[in-house]
């Protein structure tokens, strides 16, 4: 039975980990950064060396393919992929696994000369982690990028997307040209680490993703009054930070209580102005993220949080403003793709279970234009977005082989 | 009766406000910054033009004097002063008033050829607001600067004091040479805006300060675990920010409840690491400031807050570290100086009341080496450390004339 080369895959994973690699392990490789651009050049070289067609689209997405002449050719392609950007101090598998396993699968099929009716392709999507805008590359490819917003997209440190892309040799304003022709993709399958503890704890090697959570991000800004932190009586202070702190604690409890057991929330970005020890903060600013697999629950949570923000602001004598930053709806995976993955598991004698993805993925954009699905393998200790994120090398090989057989089934 | 020139004083206040002046009013003039250095050069010129002796010591403190040849001469000097640095987006009077009123008083006395047994001097102390270390210049002058810490002193943006002072032409390591000889200062009186609402609300023109609050600053660092903000179950998160938020809200209530009605607290600096919307914060960091006029109460509050921090950390599964940054003890003003100020008020027919200062001042350092006191005038609306901080020009003239007569009484 055809199988991938686990040593070659591992070697590529370890090589890619060196671009932006950190002294104690883990990687910081944000999209468009110098280490990212070096990694992208290396990846293109590997695709070419594997004997595959290689190209880059105007959104910076990298493709490798066998048996096709770009998207929109006569026969639609069966596509796999993921991303090679990372969060700051992230791990070596998140994204990288899906791209390099896809490359390994295509190389294996090409070298084995295995027949496949439809062409096969692998993608490395730009800025999945959203330094400038999450799932940027796959949004451009799927035609859901808001081109009017490209000019204002910027990283938290203020760097603009147009400048970052220009440095890498791209014109951000032309990202829309990356849109795939209608009907160009026959199916999409993405291999990824679970990033949570469910598979490991259940002792099941393969997760078949049935849905992907929606993610809502808003900026919540409480505005009070800067005052002297010694001379202003405590009861007269209008403290923007304490209001933000109060809101964060209560919103967290609200999401746990009303989220149906599957919704989560986070306050990962916090800014206080003017940020001086002897001045009462005039402004407390949070980025409030909420996720859940159910669209209605997510909507209801957003409404509850908005009214909570108003109550907290009123009680503390400050103003509050909610600015929506992004919102993706939960996405359903195609039954046909789930069946192909389960068929591959059966072929390989591997147990599997259906589960939802608690993280956003490029697959959710692809789900809007084609039949999409995802394969999960266990994450050690459920760890993710951390330098010590890992999976067993055996589990990685199992996941890549499931991808191989699922792609062949979908391309047959 | 001898009196200051209110128009000349106002003109100098308005001129000084232009160094680091902001478009909508107010000033940003941190110590050692380019606008500060320009303001310092201008002040030296004004002192000289007023016919006073002028010099700068190794800590960057600026002095003007009449009838003396520097500190440690035969007769001790009666000293006044304040500072010309400001907080970011501060007002035009905080500090500036005490320096320019002192200059105006000395110039008035010199021009009127009024007899005074002891020499008179005015100081502009470096970095009162503590960009690098609060009350820096007066600490150096009073011999309480910890020279071993000078190398590590740095602003919140990371800039080191030694570099900032070197840019201004000073060697920070030599700041200790600014120490005044024992017995060089006969008394110290500082004129300042109240920075709170008490005088205005009571309708009393002059405050005679009887004590100055002690200020404690600590860095409180909660360390949890960075995790993926989508895939990590809510109950397993070890969120450094939510722990910091919980602590801040509870510590605020604790200080209000156990602070004896006169202690205050603030969290003006907040940092979250890694600071990304889709990562659970591994670390939440606060600068916790507490002030109070009573040393024992302040000590007890610090102990209660330390145990609160441990409880919050334990309950939330994170670690916590408290790093003391600075601590000044509450200072008592000398009865002799308070009497001199009250005598000046009687001479001028002005009502006065004794009160404590809720803000730290250079006078608290001077209180350790001489008889020290402070004169307060009302702040409009109690506003302070804000661009719209202000007092009436008439109130300013009244305060300067009280300073004039108090200094003459102490120098007689």
Describe this entry's structure for a reader.
2 copies of one chain form a homodimer. Chain A has helices spanning 6-16, 34-49, 96-112, 136-142, 161-167, 198-202, 240-258, 295-315, 335-348, 363-366, 393-411; strands at residues 53-56, 62-66, 77-82, 120-124, 185-193, 206-212, 214-223, 227-228, 264-273, 279-280, 283-292, 319-328, 331-332, 352-357, 371-377. The model of chain A has no long low-confidence stretch (mean pLDDT 95). In chain A, the strands form 3 sheets. In chain A, strands 1, 2, 3, 4, 5, 6, 13, 14 and 15 form a 9-stranded mixed beta sheet that branches. The two termini of chain A are 16 Å apart. The first copy, chain A, is of the alpha/beta class. Chain A folds into 2 domains: 6-213 and 330-411, Aminopeptidase, CATH 3.40.630.10; 214-328, 2-Layer Sandwich (Alpha-Beta Plaits), CATH 3.30.70.360. Chain A is built from 11 helices and 15 strands. The interface between A and B is large, with 66 and 66 residues.
């Amino acid at each position: 039975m055809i199988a991938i080369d686990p040593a070659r895959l591992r070697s590529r994973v370890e090589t890619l980990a060196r671009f932006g690699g950190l002294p104690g392990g883990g990687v910081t490789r944000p999209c468009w950064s110098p280490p990212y651009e070096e990694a992208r050049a290396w990846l293109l070289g590997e695709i070419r060396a594997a004997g595959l067609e290689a190209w880059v689209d105007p959104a910076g997405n990298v493709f490798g393919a066998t048996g096709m002449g770009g998207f929109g050719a006569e026969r639609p392609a069966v596509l796999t992929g993921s991303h090679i950007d990372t969060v700051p101090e992230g791990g070596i598998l998140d994204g990288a696994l899906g791209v390099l396993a896809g490359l390994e699968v295509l190389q294996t099929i090409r070298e084995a000369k295995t027949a496949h009716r439809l062409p096969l392709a692998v993608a490395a999507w730009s800025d999945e982690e959203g330094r400038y805008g999450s799932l940027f590359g796959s949004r451009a490819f799927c035609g859901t990028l808001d081109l009017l917003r490209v000019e204002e997209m910027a990283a938290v440190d203020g760097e603009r997307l147009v400048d970052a892309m220009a440095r890498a040799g791209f014109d951000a304003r032309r990202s829309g040209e990356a849109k795939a022709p209608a009907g160009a993709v026959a199916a999409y399958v993405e291999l990824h680490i679970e990033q949570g503890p469910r598979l490991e704890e259940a002792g099941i090697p393969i997760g078949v993703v049935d849905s992907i959570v929606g993610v809502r991000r808003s900026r919540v800004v409480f505005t009070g009054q800067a005052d002297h932190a010694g001379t202003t009586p405590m009861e007269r202070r209008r403290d923007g930070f304490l209001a933000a702190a109060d809101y964060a604690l209560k919103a967290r409890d609200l999401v746990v209580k009303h989220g149906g057991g599957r919704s989560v929330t986070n306050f990962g970005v916090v800014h206080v102005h003017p940020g001086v020890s002897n001045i009462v903060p005039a402004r407390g600013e949070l980025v409030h993220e909420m996720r859940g697999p159910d669209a209605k629950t997510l909507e209801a949570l957003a409404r509850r949080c908005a009214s909570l923000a108003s109550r907290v602001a009123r009680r503390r004598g400050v103003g509050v403003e909610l600015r929506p930053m992004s919102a993706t709806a939960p996405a359903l995976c195609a039954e046909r793709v789930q069946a192909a993955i389960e068929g591959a598991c059966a072929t390989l004698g591997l147990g599997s279970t259906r589960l939802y993805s608690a993280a956003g993925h490029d697959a959710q954009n692809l789900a809007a234009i084609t039949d999409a699905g995802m394969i999960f393998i266990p994450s050690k200790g459920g760890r993710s977005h951390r330098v010590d994120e890992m999976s067993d090398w055996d589990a990685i090989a199992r996941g890549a082989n499931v991808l191989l057989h699922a792609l062949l089934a979908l391309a047959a």
